[in-house]
Specification:
The complex is a heterodimer of chains A (130) and B (195). Chain A contains 6 helices and no strands. Chain A is an all-alpha fold. Chain A has a domain of 62 residues. The two termini of chain A are 41 Å apart. Helices cover 79% and strands 0% of the residues of chain B. Classes of the chains: A mainly alpha (130), B mainly alpha (195). At the A-B interface, helix 1 and helix 2 of A face helix 3, helix 4, helix 7, helix 8 and helix 10 of B.
């Protein structure tokens, strides 16, 4: 009976459209007027500070893994490259482990996956929020 | 008519800049569409009225979170669709077909009781009955596409489905609806001949 999409559209629009009750308009406006709650402000799920922390955390993790242990040891022993506050802590007591190549790749993958996961979570949560 | 000249985004800007009365224009522009969606998905007038009211209150309160990434109508339908699904899950009641029927019948009795009016009323009842028999997803996709006139992409945004799933659902819903309609129309014609 219906040959085209347009016919179906016409049929549905003529028969399946509804008219909202006349008082609905006033009911909504009355509800809004009686409620003085201010319009909700949009707040990002992760603030700028939060993003900075995440990025710094991942960068330091990458640096720990990518840079050789000797770099950090040199940094703490050399008074030219190491700043004063660097010596405030007992860096000499800290032993920087030398990671194997496989471990480095593993930790890097973990860090990248973590970052991607955070991005995905943010998108997912903001979709739910929307 | 005058409201149609002002774009949705202008009206939203006015509401956000402290003129809540502009929301009335948005409300009058979309109230019938949202109510139709609620009616088609819930199948219960009273529930659809309550839900539509709640949707517009919710939309007003979260108007600041509308970032203009999509059209306002898409954003509105997305909220409406989610809210209607929540109501469906909460109420967990089956669509009350009898409710619509009694209303349709009442219209035919109180209005012009001509043969044509009766036929139109009965035809509408058959179309609504066929729509009611569709699955919730098919019903909503059909309603969003043909009644709200949303594109496939917009329906995908509203329903959180992929465009290919929307296309398949739409095709299936269309075929099923035609099938149901044809079977009920046969019934209608038979009844017409008998009387």
């Amino acid at each position: 009976m219906m040959e085209s999409d347009e016919e179906l559209r016409k049929l549905l629009q003529e028969n399946a459209m509804e008219k909202a009750p006349e008082d609905l308009f006033l009911r909504v406006l009355n509800t809004l007027e009686s409620d003085s709650t201010p319009l909700a402000e949009h707040k990002p799920l992760i603030s700028k500070k939060g993003w900075t922390g995440i990025v710094l955390g991942i960068l330091s993790l990458c640096a720990m893994v990518l840079l050789p242990a000797s770099f950090f040891e040199q940094l703490t022993h050399n008074p030219v490259t190491g700043t004063q506050w660097f010596h405030f802590f007992n860096w000499e007591g800290i032993h920087f482990p030398e990671f194997s190549k496989t471990t480095r790749i593993g930790i890097m993958t973990f860090a990248v996956f973590g970052l991607l996961h955070i991005l995905w979570m943010k998108q997912h949560l903001s979709r739910i929020y929307k | 008519m005058e409201n149609q000249k002002v774009s949705d985004s202008d009206l939203i800007r006015e509401v956000l800049s402290g003129n809540p009365r502009s929301y009335a224009a948005l409300l009058s522009r979309y109230q019938h569409m949202v109510f139709t969606l609620a009616m088609r998905m819930l199948g219960h007038r009273e529930l659809a009225e309550e839900t539509t009211q709640d949707i517009f209150v919710k939309v007003y309160r979260s108007l600041r979170s509308f970032r203009g990434d999509s059209k306002f109508s898409t954003w509105l339908y997305r909220i409406a669709y989610r809210s209607i699904l929540d109501v469906r899950a909460r109420e967990n009641r089956k669509p009350l077909r009898a409710n619509e029927y009694s209303e349709v019948q009442a219209c035919s009795l109180t209005g012009e009781s001509t043969w044509e009016a009766l036929m139109v009323t009965e035809r509408r009842a058959h179309i609504l009955k066929a729509l009611e028999q569709l699955s919730p997803r098919d019903k909503s996709v059909l309603s969003l596409y043909y009644l709200q006139e949303l594109s496939i992409k917009e329906i995908a945004e509203v329903t959180d489905l992929s465009t290919s799933v929307v296309k398949v659902s739409l095709f299936r819903a269309r075929e099923r609806f035609k099938e149901l309609l044809e079977s009920t129309e046969e019934g209608l014609q038979l009844r017409t001949y008998n009387t």
